[in-house]
UniProtKB/TrEMBL annotation:
Signal peptide bounds: 1-22
Source lineage: Eukaryota, Viridiplantae, Streptophyta, Embryophyta, Tracheophyta
Organism: Gossypium stocksii
Keywords, comma-separated and alphabetical: Cell wall, Cell wall biogenesis/degradation, Glycosidase, Hydrolase, Secreted, Signal
Catalytic activity: (1,4-alpha-D-galacturonosyl)n+m + H2O = (1,4-alpha-D-galacturonosyl)n + (1,4-alpha-D-galacturonosyl)m
Protein name as catalogued: Polygalacturonase
Major subcellular site: secreted
Pfam families: Glyco_hydro_28
Length: 420
């Protein structure tokens, strides 16, 4: 009876509505999906769900036999199924090369992925290094849940490599042109580049994930997003060498809650203004989060470039800092495109509220805005940060804030003191 109820619940996760010749996006209930994530991880999905186990397609869980084609065949079979489908990655160690799991598909959404195995990358050729590792692309409804691990072995195969044209290194998991996605329970370790890369997606939930790489690992962003709408990231730990979460152009309506970040470079909006014709960023909320020993805390960064865009409607709220170098930072001089003199990104309607803890910087609040487009409607409310750095370092420098091209609205307690 419980299995039948679960099947009915999964069946209503996505409902299609057709109006005229247009088809609306599926309706996705994030809370309902999260509530059932553990049952999918255990395979409790009901008798009407057809199982596609990668082992049945020839994959070997021995950690030495290359199983890329077997994973792709299992996905294709599930993708082309005309009913409810679940792709199973059982316990064991699987060796995989770069793999593309792409639609369009005919399954009844969502495709459930029971992910309990451990994945390791193939070889160390230059082609393998620069191709994203696992890519899901171009279909609606993806439900990944389990205790599995994606281990990019970046420490052995990427981080110390000579810069090959400085191209971005392979992401552990790339998700592109997808709607209605839940990722729950999995672990990502030591990615060559980004751990999760999300682009051109809609309706995303990431919960109870564990992302880790050493603080010196280069460009290993935890979750990196662009041109994506409606994302919720909750109850996760992200410890890496770059941004814990990075949100670049076209990222809208994102909520990040109960996430611990550290080490890493904090929660970052940007870099913005890097490319021509960038889409705006808006509706970003980061709250009830903690950071420890990170390079930055709550950060917005833009290039000095001629590309105009906007970043607005941004809230950093109820955040605890522990020995964070730059707890509150707007940096519109992050980098310069040749020939540019100023950032053309307009930052407005930003609130930093109830930010508390310790910093190792004597200048704990830095708001460096554009001369051409000064920051507007910036609010600092109830800020209490204490200096916890070397007491003998810059002992004559007062604990302070630094503001350029911005007028700040101060509310409540302010420590360090407001800008003059």
């Amino acid at each position: 009876m419980a299995s039948m109820r679960l099947l009915a619940i999964i069946a209503i996760l996505v409902q299609w509505s057709v109006i005229g010749d247009s088809q609306e996006l599926p309706r996705f209930d994030p809370e309902l999906a999260v509530a059932k994530a553990s049952e999918v991880a255990e395979g409790k999905v009901g008798p009407d769900v057809k199982i596609f186990n990668v082992v049945d397609f020839g994959a070997k869980p021995n950690g030495t036999t290359l199983s890329t084609i077997n994973f792709i065949r299992a996905f294709k079979a599930a993708c082309n199924h005309n009913g409810s489908a679940m792709l199973v990655i059982p316990e064991g160690n699987f060796l995989l090369g770069s793999a593309l799991f792409s639609g369009p598909c005919t399954f009844k959404p969502p495709l459930m992925v029971q992910f309990n195995g451990n994945l390791f990358p193939q070889g160390s050729t230059s082609t393998a290094e620069n191709a994203d590792w696992l890519t899901f692309m171009n279909f609606d409804g993806l439900f990944i849940s389990g205790k599995g691990t994606i281990n990019g072995l970046g420490e052995k195969r990427a981080w110390n490599a000579v810069c090959d044209g400085c191209r971005r290194k392979a992401a552990n998991l790339k998700l592109i042109k997808l709607n209605d996605v839940l990722i729950s329970g999995i672990t990502s370790i030591n990615s060559k580049g980004f751990h999760m890369m999300i682009s051109v997606c809609n309706n995303f939930v990431i919960t109870n994930v564990n992302i880790s790489a050493p603080d010196a690992s280069p460009n290993t962003d935890g979750i990196h997003m662009s041109k994506t709408n409606k994302v919720k990231i909750t109850n996760s730990i992200i410890s890496t060498g770059d941004d814990c979460v990075s949100m670049i152009h076209g990222t809208t309506n994102v909520t990040i809650e109960n996430v611990h970040c550290g080490p890493g470079h904090g929660f970052s909006i940007g870099s913005l203004g890097h490319y021509e014709d960038e889409f705006d960023v808006f509706g970003i909320t980061v709250r009830n989060c903690s950071m420890a020993y990170t390079e930055n805390g709550a950060r917005i960064k833009t290039y000095r470039n001629e590309s105009p865009s906007k970043a607005l409607g941004i809230i950093f709220q109820d955040i605890t800092m522990d020995h964070v170098k730059n707890p509150i930072l707007i940096d519109q001089e992050y980098a310069t495109i040749p020939g540019s003199v100023d950032s053309k990104v307009l930052i407005s309607d930003v609130e930093f509220s109830n930010i508390r803890g310790t910093t190792i910087s004597k200048i704990a609040v830095v708001l460096t805005c554009s001369t051409t487009f000064p920051c507007k409607d910036i609010t600092l409310k109830d800020i209490h940060l204490e200096y916890a750095g070397d007491p003998d370092h810059n002992e004559d420098t007062p604990f302070s804030s630094n503001c350029t091209n911005v007028k700040v609205n101060y509310i409540g307690e302010q420590m360090p003191p407001p800008c003059a």
